[in-house]
Amino acid sequence: MKTKNSTEKFFKKSILIVDGGSHLSKLYSYILSSDYSLTIKKNGIDALAWLEEGNDPDLIITSLRMPYLDGCAFIQNLKLSGFYRNTPVMLLSGDENLAERVEQMAYKVDSYLEKPFDPTVLKMQITKLIA
After folding, report:
1. C-alpha distances in angstroms, 88 versus 3, 22, 30, 59, 68?
2. Can you tell me the mean pLDDT for 87-103?
3. Are 37 and 67 a contacting pair, CB within 8 Å?
4. DSSP letters along 42-106, please?
5. Which CATH number fits domain 12-130: 3.40.50.620, 1.25.40.10, 3.40.50.2300, 2.40.128.90?
């Protein structure tokens, strides 16, 4: 963590998490909130609206299966945008053959993990992406 002068005010890296599973939101908060500033959205439309308000996360974690706008369409919107195309994206999904699915995606993600995931591995991958 970074400190600002002698005020000892801490600045956390920010992560936008987009996942339709409400039970997972609590898990993400439990695992990551002590190290990162989290914003959690339940679908891609809400996440895009939040981003359009001028928010700029250091990392975006998304699921494939979400209501209204699935993960592939959400990632496509990010990568086509001028502002967020270089923001690292991690995909978390319980889909079978996730590695094959990621390879076939039109827009690449920076990292992916299968659900259920090991919290230690999640933290390690996040560190690699936004250290």
Report:
1. 24, 23, 22, 5, 23
2. 87
3. no
4. SSHHHHHHHHHTT---SEEEEES--SSS-HHHHHHHHHHSTTTTTS-EEEEE--TTHHHHHHH-S
5. 3.40.50.2300
Burial track 28-67 (b if 16+ CB lie within 10 A, e otherwise): beebbeeebebbbbbbbbbbbeebeeeeebbbbbbbbebe
Most confident of 22-26, 94-98, 123-127: 123-127
List the beta bridge partners of residue 87.
Answer: none
On whether the CB atoms of residues 95 and 73 are closer than 8 A, the answer is no
Q: Which residue has the tokens 């990551």?
A: 32
Question: Strand 36-41 vs strand 111-114: parallel, antiparallel, or unpaired?
Answer: unpaired
* pTM of the predicted structure, to 2 decimals: 0.87
DSSP bridge pairs for 17: 40, 61
The Cα–Cα gap between 115 and 72 comes to 17
